[in-house]
Amino acid sequence: LLKLFVEYGNCDLFISNRDGWLPLHIAAYLGYMDIVYYLLRY
After folding, report:
1. pLDDT-based confidence at 10, cuts 50/70/90?
2. What is the DSSP letter of 9?
3. Phi, psi (5° rounding) for residue 32?
4. Are 2 and 38 a contacting pair, CB within 8 Å?
5. Can you tell me the distance from the alpha carbon of 32 to that of 26, in angstroms, rounded to the nearest whole number?
6. Whether the Cβ atoms of residue 13 and residue 22 lie closer than 8 Å to each other
7. CB burial class (10 A; 0-12, 13-18, 19+) of residue 24?
8. What are the residue ranges spanned by the domains of the chain?
């Protein structure tokens, strides 16, 4: 699902939440390493 949003949607991966966390930070914190690797390659 993430891949579809990134490749075909209007998705900005560099917008942080109110605490300053990027999607990469949240994925790493929650232990979603497959998502972390994907975001690092993007």
Report:
1. confident
2. S
3. -85, 75
4. yes
5. 9
6. yes
7. middle
8. 2-41
- The pLDDT value recorded for residue 18 is 97
Both structure tokens of 16: 């942080």
Using CA atoms, how far apart are residues 5 and 11, in angstroms rounded to an integer?
6
Place of tokens 């891949």: 3
Q: At what angle do helices 23-30 and 33-41 cross, to 10 degrees?
A: 150
Q: How many residues does the chain have?
A: 42
31, 12, 10, 2 alpha-carbon torsion, rounded to 10°: -10
- Compute the distance between CA of residue 4 and CA of residue 25 in angstroms, rounded to an integer: 20
